[in-house]
Amino acid sequence: MRIVRFEIKECIRYGVLRGEDIQVLSGNPFDDANTAVALTAQLTEESCRLERVSLLAPCEPSKYIGIGINYRATAEALNFPVPERPILFLKPPSAVIGPDQNIVLPKSPVKVVCEGELAVVISRRCKNISEKEAPSHILGYTITNDVTDASKFESDSGNPTRAKVADTFGPLGPWIETELDPRNLTLKTYINGQQAQHGTIGDLIFSINYCLSFISHLMTLLPGDIIATGTPQAPAEVKPGDLVEVKVDGIGTLKNGVVGLPQGPHDEREK
């Protein structure tokens, strides 16, 4: 089942994508998203064509939790030691954008990179759960692009906060796939049609279930929250005018353009 969140006639709705048609849901899939049966009960007879709507980020997370250096290839490329436990960072909800929306680069000078990742979507509130319990708290999977201002990361001695929290730095989409075994999926990132990253989700250092359990012992996870599972290779730099595409088998493609802002009179305080 592919769950979409979309806008049509200035109204935001959820639906289930079936080919090129969207079957509209009566409410929010996170209200009772514990089972496929509960989602099916929300299906209405109303439908619309995919081409006539604007797809939005498929959920509205209260928090976007990223996992850094979760592939050995990434650690080697960046000359990082393999971590002993998941390295976490947060993005605010204001960073999230949907498919086909633009990534807006901060005012120059900057070096911004894109990191294609598989994202886990939380279905229901969870705290202190085990790895065995983790799958029952996952609604499904979507694609994300962990956009990072590498120049701020470097100037802040590796502190990720300023580097990752900017508006538009958390693209999500195009939908949530609920029937998926992520372990053998292939992820690829393209910039202007040229492959920049390639990896297999099964190569994660810390498994999805382990990460979910680990995070739940640190904070309460809420319906719609996102866990970005890590990028499989060194990130690729982007510039204004670029088109970034992140493709994951079994889900689809997340596309976002890149635009820049002109230098302003107060930019010195941002460096």
Describe this structure in words.
The structure is a single chain. With 271 residues, this protein is mainly beta. The protein has 2 domains: 2-55, Roll (SH3 type barrels); 64-260, Fumarylacetoacetate hydrolase, domain 2 (Alpha-Beta Complex). The protein contains 5 helices and 20 strands. The strands form 3 sheets. Strands 1, 2, 3, 4, 5, 6, 7, 8, 11, 12, 14 and 17 form a 12-stranded mixed beta sheet that branches. A hairpin with a 2-residue loop joins β15 (186-191) and β16. It is globular, with a radius of gyration of 18 Å. The model has no long low-confidence stretch (mean pLDDT 92).
What's the short story on this structure?
By secondary structure, the protein is mostly beta strands. It has helices at 36-41, 72-77, 150-155, 161-164, 208-216, and strands at residues 2-8, 11-18, 21-25, 43-49, 54-55, 64-68, 87-91, 96-97, 103-104, 112-114, 116-122, 138-145, 148-149, 170-177, 186-191, 194-200, 226-228, 236-238, 243-248, 252-259.
